[in-house]
Write a structure and sequence with these properties.
Layout: E1 8-11, H1 17-28, E2 32-37, H2 41-50, E3 57-60, H3 66-80, E4 85-88, H4 103-129, E5 135-140, H5 144-147, H6 153-173, E6 178-185, H7 191-194, H8 198-205, H9 216-227, E7 238-241
Parallel strand pairs: 1-2, 1-4, 2-3, 4-5, 5-6, 6-7
Helix pairs in contact: 1-9, 3-4, 4-6
Length: 247
């Protein structure tokens, strides 16, 4: 399918994992993709080399730093000449039980995950307003933002905040033909889940009605749908990709 032919899309945190999978799926559907990375340019270049099509780019971006966001989006607009969609995927974890969590651990996660989504969405809004037929923002949240999780109060707060943020911006920008949605993955096969023991994986699977871990392609397919015209009447929505873990 080439639903995204000539669409110009920024994917933050796309040098590995789910972000890289999203970038590959969007490119395969015809989009021109800007891959952002925070520190590992070589990984971002490897993802760039794997993309179908041409005119893609990599750009350094610290989503928690306002000046870095401005520079990155200026570079993207200079390269593409416009913007049709933004995928806010960049995020971090700093897991710890509340009684042991340092304020800096809480602040870093909120700054990167929640404030980063705010800064990037704000930077993208003016060019998205000029997008023919309207623009789209897709924010990657998490099932943890819906259920909570012991040891992840900072992470769950940031992801729940992004969902509320997305609904508010969807209300603000709907009349301007800009749609804002979320994709909330459950347990997806990535480098992180590869580190789990077989017993840990089995304990997770017992909670998942479909009895399997998700694949990166499951998430990237949901994102591709939401940025495409097939989702032109969907905004303020969270699409759960979790095998039924949370309903």
């Amino acid at each position: 399918m080439r639903r995204l032919e000539k669409r110009q899309i920024v994917v933050t945190g796309a040098s590995r994992g789910i972000g890289a999978g999203i970038a590959r799926r969007l490119a395969a559907e015809g989009a021109q993709v800007a891959i952002t990375y925070s520190s590992n340019r070589s990984s971002a270049e490897a993802v760039l080399a794997s993309l179908e099509g041409t005119s893609h780019m990599v750009v350094e971006l610290n989503v928690a730093d306002e000046e870095s966001v401005k520079r990155a989006f200026d570079e993207v607009l200079s390269h593409f000449g416009g913007l049709n969609a933004l995928v806010n995927n960049a995020g971090i974890t700093q897991d710890q039980l509340l009684l042991r969590m340092k304020s800096g651990d809480f602040d870093r996660v909120i700054q990167t995950n929640l404030r980063g989504a705010f800064l990037c969405t704000k930077a993208a809004m003016k060019p998205l307003l000029k997008s023919p037929g309207g623009g789209s923002v897709v924010n990657i949240t998490s099932v943890i933002g819906q259920t909570g999780n012991a040891g992840q109060s900072n992470y769950s707060a940031s992801k729940a905040g992004i969902e509320a943020f997305s609904k508010s911006i969807a209300l603000e920008m709907g009349s301007r033909a800009i749609r804002v949605n979320c994709v909330a993955p459950g347990f997806i096969v990535t480098e992180m889940t590869d580190q789990l023991t077989e017993d840990q994986k089995e304990a997770i699977l017992q909670k998942v009605p479909l009895r399997t871990l998700g694949q990166v392609d499951d998430v990237s397919a949901a994102v591709a749908f939401l940025v495409s015209d097939e989702a032109k009447y969907i905004t303020g929505h969270t699409l759960n990709v979790n095998g039924g873990l949370y309903m």
